[in-house]
Amino acid sequence: MISKKIDLVIREVPDFPKPGINFKDITTLLLDQELSSEIIDTFINRLKGKKIDAIVGVESRGFLFGFLLANKMGIPFIPIRKSG
């Protein structure tokens, strides 16, 4: 299952940015081209048959996969920035 593959690749940084929070660093995932492609393909397969006009990605991690997904589907990508 793809979720198990993702869990094995993502690096966890304990107590970052403050104690009690464990940051999920996806840099290691982005270095794995095969798994990154498999993630996009999994999203595309789950969305088959649905009418989708655009993909929206929330800053900042949503930009990474949202753009790739929209590009592969041939639809617009809409980046949403956090306030501030």
List keywords for this structure.
single chain, 84 residues, alpha+beta, Rossmann fold, two-stranded parallel ribbon, 4 helices, 4 strands, 48% helix, globular
Explained architecture:
The chain is α+β, with helices and mostly antiparallel strands. The chain has helices at residues 2-9, 27-30, 33-47, 61-73, and strands spanning 11-13, 23-25, 55-58, 77-80. The protein has one domain: 3-Layer(aba) Sandwich (Rossmann fold). The strands form two sheets. A two-stranded antiparallel ribbon has the order 1-2. A two-stranded parallel ribbon has the order 3-4. Strand 3 (55-58), helix 4 (61-73) and strand 4 (77-80) form a beta-alpha-beta unit. The radius of gyration is 15 Å and the shape is globular. The model has no long low-confidence stretch (mean pLDDT 95).
Short description:
This protein is α+β, with helices and mostly antiparallel strands and 84 residues long. Helices cover 48% and strands 17% of the residues.
How is the main sheet built?
2 strands, antiparallel
Query: Which second-level CATH architecture applies?
Result: 3-Layer(aba) Sandwich
Question: Which band does the percent of strand residues land in?
Answer: 15-25%
Radius of gyration: 15 Å
CATH fold type: Rossmann fold
Anisotropy-based shape: globular
For the secondary structure, the number of strands is: 4
Task: Tell me the count of domains.
Answer: 1
**Separation of the first and last Cα atoms:** 38 Å
At the first level of CATH, the class is Alpha Beta
> How much helicity do the residues have?
40-55%
| Poorly predicted regions | none
In spatial order, strands of the major sheet run 1-2
Mean pLDDT: 95
Q: What's the total helix number?
A: 4
N to C succession of SSEs: HEEHHEHE
